[in-house]
Amino acid sequence: MRIVSFLLTFFVCASLTSQGISFFEGSFDEAKELAAKEGKLIFMDSYAKWCGPCKRMARDVFTVEEVGDFFNANFVNLKMDMETEEGRLLNKTYQVAVYPTLFVLDADGEIILREKGYRDARGLLQVGRKALLPSESQMLDMADQFQSGEYDVLFLVDYLQALQWTGKEGQSNVMAKLAESVSPSDMQLEKVQQAFLGYSPLASGYYPTHILKDYQNVFIDQLGKEKFEETVLSILKGLWQGATKEEYGRFITPEDFDTYYDVFKSINNKRYKREVYLWKMAFAEAFGDWDVFLKAANTYFKSKAGKTDETTLMSASWSLYHSDPIYDDQVLAWTNRVMESSANQSAPYFLQAYLFMRQENYEKADEVMQRCMVFLTEDSPEYKDASIINTILETQLSR
């Protein structure tokens, strides 16, 4: 059975390139050798130099960043001028009569997909995804192999990513087995690296975070330090977001959370110290543990970074406002702090007005809004919202 081999780029994964499609410059046979070595398929653009649509694709489609990210991650990409000596020989096999003709081939050169004619960026991405999508019978075969104890690393990578692509269950079990089976030599393969970096734990609430620590030098060599750190943060965020789903509660607890984020401490201890309380705030908010949220927030807002972080201060204020009126005093304290540092920002005034209105203290709400109106003009984007609040207050105060 031909197992579809593919490497998908997800919202949590930093792509390895961003300059459009990178085309292999060797021969067709060399492209097949590379595809076999990397466990990838071949995307071949069959063109002619005189072909107008071919030129437009080369100029306007192959250069699109999103297209490049997808095709570079999933394929060995090859442009083949079908009127060269090599192209004419290949044409005896592939019978190209329309330009461009787009092929997806396996490492033996067998045709998986043939598409004729021009495609825009969206259409080309659809071609690539169509070629990578496993059939139902392939998925069943993979499942049977896994249940029978097939734990070859490259097979596990294919199966894991097939499960992700099709949204099927069982991803955490396959990922756990992959982490258990992978060796340092396996981790030298881009395909295996991308399986870990491109895996989103959002759907399963599970990720073997020790892999990020144990192989960080390998990942950094591939991505660079900054991209690797951002990828790790995305994975950790997806992990706890997935784990907050009720059905995945068994995978993560507040204690697990600390353990998982300790992985980032080993990667960048300085940044960990700066951001750990932001993570704790987000985690506590997801679980509705407002006392833990408040403790983490106050610690962060006393730190060097937190003292000037008005955006997070306002976000935390809104979160507490919506959680429980018992935190109203804290909301007032935080919004007062924003007012003191940014007197012409309307957000803290609006929040205080809502809070006082909820308490039916309309005089105090009106006082806050009058202070806000001083720096608003009719051209201000917030002016309409302020006017609505003032109309409500006028009605209440006139009773």
What class, by secondary structure content? alpha/beta
The helix/strand series, from N terminus to C terminus, equals EHEHHEHEEHHHHHHHHHHHHHHHH
What gap, in angstroms, lies between the N and C termini? Answer: 79 Å
Label the overall shape.
elongated
Return residue spans where pLDDT drops below 50 for at least 5 consecutive residues.
1-18
Folded structure, characterized:
The structure is a single chain. It contains 20 helices and 5 strands. The protein has 399 residues and is of the alpha/beta class. It has helices at residues 28-38, 52-61, 65-74, 85-94, 121-132, 136-147, 153-166, 171-181, 190-197, 210-214, 216-223, 225-243, 254-267, 269-287, 290-302, 310-323, 328-341, 347-358, 362-373, 383-397, and strands at 23-24, 41-47, 75-81, 101-105, 111-116. The model is unreliable at 1-18 (pLDDT under 50). Helices cover 61% and strands 7% of the residues. Strands 1-3-2-4-5 form a 5-stranded mixed β-sheet, sandwiched between helices. Strand 4 (101-105) and strand 5 (111-116) form a beta hairpin. The protein has a domain at 23-132: Glutaredoxin (3-Layer(aba) Sandwich).
